[in-house]
């Protein structure tokens, strides 16, 4: 696609606010990350995204919705004709979402959504993405037209298969809408021990309700969420900032280096030393 000719294996932010692009053979260590709230559009190829114990094939052309920050691992693959993986991402703007929800008639919104999944794109939805992407050729039009195209994309998500799920995060009175503030707290305080009762109190829920809603929203328990944040941060410290393994473990909140090694190996599939050595080797060959 000519409109994505500037994309490469490192995500780039475009001139359209909130719109990013990426393509090619992206190394899996780069795809293990804390993902931002977004709508993703797999243009071609396939992304296999793993959140908790659930892996989902996102085969293009399709879209998916991540309504909140969530740690995940992934791999990408060319399409059946060998053409490279290509995707776009549009950051979720809560203000736009809430204004749009006030304007959409109730009968147009779905009353239920399935699990996180790749959603088929109809021609109208695809054209909305293309209109947004074409603005890169006419930057003078971005301030006036990008908000309208962003609103259209959100509208089509809200009235599509994942619409009910996304809507819950935009309704201030719903239980799911309270989880992002807890996630933000955990993101800031992930090195501290977690008290589930304290988190439930912050969310205004009973402990059992909070635990259920948190896992429903993120695919992870609060403890699993914290653990994966710690492991992702430790990986960066060892691979890119020169921390010894034990020092990185203590820095992110582990009390036992042996427990850290076990959990790291289980999550990333290799020991911290071997994994980060491989990351540095891969990065040394990239532009």
Give an overview of the whole structure.
It comes from Paenibacillus typhae. Residues 180-278 form the HTH araC/xylS-type domain. It holds the Pfam family HTH_18. The protein has 287 residues and is of the alpha+beta class. It has 3 domains: 2-168, Jelly Rolls (Sandwich), CATH 2.60.120; 175-219; 224-284, Homeodomain-like (Arc Repressor Mutant, subunit A), CATH 1.10.10.60. It is built from 12 helices and 10 strands. It has helices spanning 28-31, 94-103, 123-134, 142-158, 163-170, 179-188, 196-203, 207-218, 222-240, 245-251, 257-268, 272-284, and strands at 12-13, 19-23, 33-35, 38-44, 46-51, 54-59, 62-66, 70-77, 86-91, 119-120. The strands form 2 sheets. Strands 1-2-9-4-7-10 form a 6-stranded antiparallel beta sheet, covered by helices on one side. Helix 3 packs antiparallel against helix 4 (142-158), helix 7 packs across helix 8 and helix 9 (222-240) packs across helix 10. The two termini are 22 Å apart.
Q: Topology, please?
A:
Blueprint (H helix, E strand, L loop, with lengths): L11 E2 L5 E5 L4 H4 L1 E3 L2 E7 L1 E6 L2 E6 L2 E5 L3 E8 L8 E6 L2 H10 L15 E2 L2 H12 L7 H17 L4 H8 L8 H10 L7 H8 L3 H12 L3 H19 L4 H7 L5 H12 L3 H13 L3
Antiparallel strand pairs: 1-2, 2-9, 3-8, 4-7, 4-9, 5-6, 5-8, 7-10
Helix pairs in contact: 2-4, 3-4, 7-8, 9-10, 9-12
């Amino acid at each position: 696609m000519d409109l994505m000719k500037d994309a490469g294996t490192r995500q780039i932010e475009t001139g359209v606010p909130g719109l990013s692009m990426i393509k090619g053979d992206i190394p899996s260590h780069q795809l293990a990350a804390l993902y931002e709230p977004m709508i993703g559009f797999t243009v071609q190829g396939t992304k296999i995204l793993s959140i908790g114990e659930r892996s989902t094939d996102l085969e293009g052309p399709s879209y998916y919705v991540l309504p909140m920050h969530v740690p995940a691992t992934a791999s990408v693959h060319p399409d059946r004709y060998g053409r490279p993986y290509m995707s776009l991402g549009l950051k979720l703007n809560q203000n736009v979402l809430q204004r749009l929800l006030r304007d959409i008639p109730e009968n147009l919104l779905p009353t239920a959504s399935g699990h996180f999944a790749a959603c088929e794109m109809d021609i109208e939805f695809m054209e909305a993405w293309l209109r947004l992407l074409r603005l890169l050729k006419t930057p003078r039009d971005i301030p006036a037209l990008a908000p309208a195209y962003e609103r259209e994309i959100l509208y089509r998500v809200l009235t599509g298969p994942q619409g009910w799920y996304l809507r819950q995060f935009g309704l201030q009175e719903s239980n799911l809408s309270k989880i992002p503030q807890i996630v933000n707290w955990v993101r800031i305080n992930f090195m501290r021990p977690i008290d589930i009762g304290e988190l439930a109190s912050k969310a205004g829920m009973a402990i059992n309700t909070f635990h259920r809603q948190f896992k429903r929203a993120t695919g992870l328990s609060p403890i699993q969420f914290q653990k994966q944040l710690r492991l992702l941060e430790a990986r960066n410290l060892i691979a890119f900032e020169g921390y010894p393994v034990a020092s990185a473990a203590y820095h992110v909140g582990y009390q036992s280096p042996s427990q850290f090694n076990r959990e790291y190996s289980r999550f990333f599939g290799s020991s911290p030393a071997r994994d980060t050595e491989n990351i540095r080797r891969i990065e040394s060959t990239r532009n």
